[in-house]
From TrEMBL:
Protein name as catalogued: Uncharacterized protein
Region annotation (Disordered) ranges: 1-21
TM stretches of this protein: 21-41, 53-71, 78-99, 119-140
Record's compositionally biased regions (Pro residues): 7-21
Superkingdom of the organism of origin: Bacteria
Keyword list, A-Z: Membrane, Transmembrane, Transmembrane helix
Length: 148
């Protein structure tokens, strides 16, 4: 038979796109719980006060986020840590609104409650910090994968 006599072939079915792995919400929730370091260090005085405390808490948080996601096999590290940053901010905002003294907002002359207009910028900053940590964690994952 020649090609003129063959029955027409149906067009090939398009292959479904591979699904991206789901966001590990337990990792997001667990890492965002590090927002509780602020009130804990404030209550105990472990890391001092002011800038030294802030740098220590931020450094510990970043190291844990990058280490857990970068050294672990966490899928989608950039998205995971961006959402972690957002959740971290939500925990901090909720804590600041519900218990201002524990969040460290009730200083001298302060009302103890964050102004409402600061919530969105705070969440954006926390999400951006999570994005940066996610980029570093993705780099760590790539470096680990290249060595195998």
């Amino acid at each position: 038979m020649t090609s003129q006599h063959l029955p027409p072939q149906p067009p090939p079915r398009p292959q479904p796109a591979p699904e991206a792995p789901a966001v590990p919400w337990t990792v997001v929730a667990g890492l965002s719980a590090l927002a509780l370091l602020w009130p804990l260090t404030g209550l105990t005085g472990v890391l001092g006060t002011g800038a030294p405390r802030a740098f220590a808490v931020i450094g510990i948080t970043a190291a844990v986020w990058i280490g857990a996601v970068g050294l672990g096999r966490v899928p989608r590290p950039v998205l995971t840590l961006t959402l972690t940053g957002l959740a971290y901010g939500l925990v901090g905002v909720a804590l600041g609104q519900l218990v201002p003294a524990l969040a460290g907002l009730g200083g001298p002359g302060g009302s103890g409650v964050e102004p409402a207009w600061t919530i969105v910028p705070a969440l954006l900053v926390d999400s951006f910090v999570g994005l940066l940590a996610g980029l570093v964690a993705a780099g760590v994952q790539r470096l680990r994968g290249a060595g195998r």
